[in-house]
Design a protein that fits this description.
Elements: H1 2-18, E1 23-28, E2 40-45, E3 52-57, E4 62-67, E5 73-79, E6 89-95, E7 98-104, E8 111-117, E9 122-126, E10 136-144, E11 147-154, E12 159-165, E13 171-177, E14 183-184, E15 190-191, H2 193-198, E16 206-209, H3 217-220, E17 224-229, E18 232-237, E19 243-250, E20 256-262, E21 274-280, E22 283-290, E23 293-300, E24 306-313, E25 325-329, E26 335-338, H4 341-349, E27 352-360, E28 363-372, E29 387-388, E30 391-392, H5 399-409, E31 411-419, H6 434-444, E32 454-458, E33 461-468, E34 473-478
């Protein structure tokens, strides 16, 4: 037994050594008495100075840490008074080492805050910041450049409200009025933007896409998607299959650009046709499928010029795929391959069709297929945010974590394809992305069920965090 024990210890040390160069930071909880595993971890990187703020949230307290860009501890505080709604973290705005965390009620209509001043070692909670929604539909929230934004849709109109929340509990409102723009149903009847956002029975939901990162067919299958990049919100709606509406909103001045891409392949009489789309950079990617085959169009967003058309019928082989037809049953271990194009088309038309795009090594990686509903819960992950439209909404700081979790667990049927800058097909294997590297590390270290896993980025580096019960510490690793 003693030899076995020594062997296990030796194996553990060998594994730890092989990954020692990846160690990033360890936060030990023994410096505060009687503290064990938190219920939520919030990681925030200051984009201006590189400081990293970490908040470990418990039911009634928060342990707050601030590190500089070299991971030297600046200060730490124990916050023993939380505002109401603290179970639903929304986002954080900060300035000069003052961090204000915003929270919302389950209906996303009322908001509270907690201000933590690391410079003066003080904190203050505000049970109501004076912002509440009435006759507005919560669309999505996001964080950027140390600021928090909330986008809402005014009921039964084509007007949007964009709220910006500041560290001192102020907020500003910009009205985006699209009343002059045309939104139509497939039968040609006019509707409004709020209808696209809410859906006929409030079943629609807007999903945030992390720009430039791998995603999953599950997240990208949403009919309404929101992208944020360089101070511009891009909202797209495929609520109806006959077209895609695109709205670009400048968060600085509230100006917008409206565009519409008609689905030239759409046939109203074909009950089995489905469509979805994706935005990446200057390009619009449109996917249309029926029982007869699939068409995939790539357009220049600004000129609406068709750059590339890919298609195949149920009788054809798929010439531009770089992988087999992959069928995954909800995790990486449940994997098999399909042989025939007819199988692919049948699976995809019977599920939620989807596509997503990102770049690796100067080439475009395009995934085409569908996702199927799956159980949401998995040990090791916790997603605050509450419910919107009957579905789980992900807090802004957890977007990368949720994207990774969906990436490794989505139940999907797909092909993956590789194209150069001019969208010419490139042969070879799909390169490993950041999520693949994280998954390899998690598997090697047997961390699949490690509690409170989080992921964030500093520069181009992925930082993976998890709670270690034996050490009563939260451990971060640079992948």
């Amino acid at each position: 037994m003693k030899n076995l024990y020594l062997s296990v210890i030796l194996l553990f040390l060998v594994i730890q050594t092989s990954f020692s160069q990846a160690e990033w930071l360890t936060v030990n909880f023994t410096d505060f008495q009687n503290f064990k595993k938190p219920i939520e971890v919030i990681n925030l990187v200051d984009e201006e100075n590189g400081n990293v703020a970490i908040f470990f949230k418990y039911s009634n307290t928060i342990r707050a840490y601030l590190y500089d860009k070299d991971k030297k501890l600046i200060n730490k505080l124990l916050v023993d008074k939380l505002p109401r709604f603290s179970v639903n973290y929304l986002g954080c705005s900060n300035f000069n080492s003052v961090y204000t965390l915003f929270f919302k009620n389950i209906g996303s209509t009322k908001f509270s805050s907690l201000t933590i001043d690391f410079k003066n070692s003080t904190f203050n909670s505000t049970k109501d910041i004076g912002l509440f929604f009435k006759k507005e539909t919560y669309v999505e929230s996001f964080e950027d450049n140390n600021r928090v934004y909330i986008l809402t849709s005014i009921d039964k109109t084509s007007k949007l409200n964009l709220y910006e929340l500041f560290y001192d509990n102020r907020f500003e409102l910009k009205l985006i009025d699209l009343s002059d723009e045309v939104f139509e149903k497939p039968n040609g009847f006019r509707t409004n933007l709020n209808f696209l956002i809410r859906g006929l029975n409030q079943e629609s939901m807007t999903t945030s896409i992390k720009v430039g990162e791998p995603s999953s067919l599950e997240l990208a299958s949403a009919k309404n998607k929101l992208y944020y990049n360089n101070n511009v919100i891009t909202f797209t709606s495929n609520y109806f299959d006959h077209c895609t509406y695109i709205i670009d909103i400048n968060v600085d001045d509230g100006s917008y650009e409206y565009s519409k891409f008609d689905n030239v392949n759409y046939k109203k009489e074909d009950l089995w046709n489905k469509a979805n789309s994706f935005i990446y950079g200057d390009y619009f990617f449109n996917m249309y499928i029926s029982k007869e085959g699939l068409t995939y169009d790539i357009y220049d967003r600004s000129t609406k010029e068709l750059i590339k058309r890919l298609n195949f019928s149920r009788k054809d082989s798929i010439r531009f795929k770089n992988t087999p037809i992959i069928l995954e049953g909800g995790d990486f271990k449940n994997y098999r391959e399909l042989d025939k194009t007819t199988q692919f088309i049948r699976k995809v038309t019977n599920s939620k069709i989807s596509t997503y795009v990102y770049k690796m090594g100067g080439n475009y990686v395009i995934s085409i297929g569908s996702s199927e509903p799956k159980q949401q819960a998995q040990m090791g992950y916790y997603y605050p945010g509450g419910l919107v439209g009957g579905l789980m909404a992900i807090a802004a700081h957890q977007l990368l974590t949720s994207s990774y979790h969906s990436y490794i667990t989505t139940k999907s049927t797909r092909i993956e394809c590789l194209f150069d800058e001019s969208f010419n097909h490139v042969s070879g294997n799909i390169p490993l992305n950041g999520f693949d590297r994280i998954k390899e590390y998690v598997d090697k270290m047997n961390l699949e069920t490690a509690p409170l896993q989080t992921i964030f980025k500093t520069g181009n580096d992925y930082i993976f965090g998890y709670y270690n019960k034996d050490l009563n510490s939260y451990i971060y690793t640079n992948i």
